[in-house]
From TrEMBL:
InterPro entries, alphabetized: GAF, GAF-like_dom_sf, HATPase_C_sf, HATPase_dom, His_kinase_dom, HisK_dim/P_dom, HisK_dim/P_sf, PAS
A Pfam entry, by short name: GAF_3
Listed PROSITE patterns: HIS_KIN
Species annotation: Limnofasciculus baicalensis BBK-W-15
Enzyme class: transferase
Record flagged with keyword ATP-binding: yes
Name the record gives this protein: Circadian input-output histidine kinase CikA
């Protein structure tokens, strides 16, 4: 009985007079199949009926073909089209007429496909004749794409909706969108539609010098078609259109036909070009929105940090101020038992006043730096003398905490003269050594220098190299996830009024800005909490140091 039914179906399909006739459901599964040339290609009904498209005789643009079937079933309108089918490693172009099969209730769950194999020479001619039939559905789909991308300001959504919808509508193997900014030497693939059997290009960076079709599309602002290549991207035929806003390119839309050579019709090129214009505007609006969003987040974070800074600074200002008031009141009230104790009270008041002055100076310094009004006079200074000054000023504080403070100068070298500002370089070193002492419970701090010879140009001066200064400690260290906060103004690793260590959180930020102003670079290194820290900075050499030769 089943054999009779199968024979009956085959006879019925043959009777329709087409070279190729079959029925399919919405998923693309074959329910009946007849092809006059099937035996020529070694294909039988058993190898087709009941199987899904990807497992047998299948259209190359699989997803686009399925979308077409879905559209025909939904709207119940027949369509004419050309689809390339693949079987036994051959690609075969068929001209097809696809019609919905209406059931008694008026619904359609299957389609009837009739068609014939086209000679290669006839493909383009038939495509041109089909433009009046195929343009309208594609135009509707592209209008839907444009409507979708206009409804969002999210760049990722704009890019992805563009490639997904356009790739399927144009029945290509791959569709990508690349971002571009004026002056860039490369573009990045931001979103991709790609059929399973082809390599992904998502997130790849493409150098424009190596991709002539992309470069031409950006320079000419015109569609670039029919570049035939055998690159690793696998494309055989490519259509590239640049997106733009106010005549400035801001991206690229690329369609790749990887399985065959494809002639792009004028109608196809025009449709993609029109869409590119709308995508370019959407990208511009999305980029602006993203920039505003980032700026808003940064402004909110800056406001939060400054509010936190003001709270911390108020606490820091009150501490020395209360100390001054307290010790001076003891002197005025005659609480001191003898002149020595009175002198001690006055000395403590003075120490508090100096501390208060240092805090105020830090605040003024960061204000000058942020407003661009920090101007420094640079000249030659002896590094050895600077290190000795730092040692003299910080030795007592280190000894008070039972810490070793060590200076290490490069061996075999004398007379290291740097090109800098003495007062500000001293301020940087005192900041770094003071921080190291504050955050070290046991062990010590080492100040060292390394001379690096290479040509350096700074302030229109040709200099022979630079010195890398290191301040290393055996202190508490900083976890890797918190190190990016160290050089932020108004920021501390330990924040809040109950933080274990005092300070305004401006020391490292000021030091970094001062070093950069004097032509250097500052870096921070720590392997983690409890593993100590090392801060390095560079300062230009004024002249070659003296090399000491030793006689043996």
């Amino acid at each position: 009985m089943e054999l009779i039914t199968a024979q009956g179906q085959s006879s019925f399909l043959q009777g329709l007079g087409a070279d190729l006739v079959f029925t399919q459901d919405a998923s693309g599964q074959y329910h009946s199949f007849y092809w006059r040339d099937a035996q020529k290609y070694g294909l039988t009904e058993e190898q087709v009926i009941g199987l899904h498209l990807k497992d047998t005789f299948y259209p190359v643009a699989l997803e686009g073909y399925r979308d077409r079937i879905q559209r025909i079933l939904e709207h119940r309108n027949p369509e004419r089209c050309i689809h390339w089918f693949r079987y036994n490693k051959e690609n075969l172009p068929f001209e097809l007429a696809i019609s919905p099969i209406l059931e008694r209730d008026g619904n359609a769950t299957k389609v009837l496909v009739m068609g014939h194999l086209l000679p290669e020479s006839e493909v383009q001619k038939v495509i041109d004749s089909l433009v009046p039939y195929s343009l309208d559905p594609n135009q509707k789909l592209l209008t839907q794409i444009a409507r979708k991308i206009r409804r969002t300001l999210d760049l990722d959504t704009i890019w992805q909706q563009t490639v997904e919808s356009l790739g399927r509508a144009m029945q290509v193997n791959r569709c990508i969108v690349c971002s571009y900014k004026k002056g860039d030497l490369e573009v990045k693939v931001e979103a991709e539609y790609c059929q399973e059997s082809f390599d992904s290009m998502l997130a790849k960076k493409l150098e424009l010098e190596n991709e002539p079709e992309l470069k031409e599309a950006l320079l000419s602002s015109k569609p670039v078609v029919d570049y035939i290549t055998t690159s690793e991207s696998q494309q055989q035929s490519i259509l590239v259109v640049s997106t733009s806003y106010k005549d400035e390119p801001n991206g690229l839309i690329c369609l790749h036909q990887c399985d065959r050579h494809r002639q792009w019709s004028d109608a196809e090129v025009e449709l993609v070009r029109e869409l590119a214009e709308q995508v370019g505007t959407a990208i511009a609006h999305g980029t602006l929105y993203k920039e505003l969003e980032i700026a808003t987040i940064q402004a909110e974070e800056a406001s939060r940090l400054k509010s936190e800074f003001l709270a911390n600074t108020s606490h820091e200002l009150r501490t020395p101020l209360n100390g001054m008031i307290g010790f001076l009141r003891l002197v005025i009230d005659g609480v001191a038992d003898d002149p020595d104790e009175e002198k001690e009270f006055i000395q403590e008041a003075l120490n508090s006043a100096i501390h208060l002055l240092n805090i105020i100076n830090d605040i003024l310094d960061i204000a000058k730096i942020e407003s661009g009004k920090m101007e420094l006079e640079l000249g030659p200074l002896e590094l050895d003398a600077l290190f000795r000054k730092v040692y003299d000023l910080q030795r007592q504080q280190a000894q008070h905490r039972n810490l070793n403070l060590t200076i290490e100068m490069p061996r075999g070298i004398e007379g290291i003269t740097v090109y800098s500002n003495y007062q500000r370089l001293l301020q940087v070193l005192l900041n770094l050594v003071g921080n190291a002492i504050k955050f070290t419970e046991e062990g010590g701090i080492t100040i060292s220098a390394e001379v690096i010879r290479q040509n350096v140009r700074f302030k229109d001066e040709e200099l022979p190299g630079y010195v890398k200064v290191r301040v290393a400690d055996t202190g508490i260290g900083v976890s890797l996830d918190k190190q990016d906060k160290l050089f932020q103004s108004f920021s501390q690793v330990h924040s809040g009024l109950n933080r274990p260590y005092g300070g305004t959180g401006l020391g490292l930020a000021i030091s970094q800005k001062l070093v950069e102003t004097m032509g250097g670079v500052m870096n921070f290194f720590s392997m983690g909490e409890g593993l100590g820290s090392t801060v390095t900075f560079t300062v230009p050499l004024f002249q070659d140091p003296i090399v000491i030769t030793q006689d043996y």
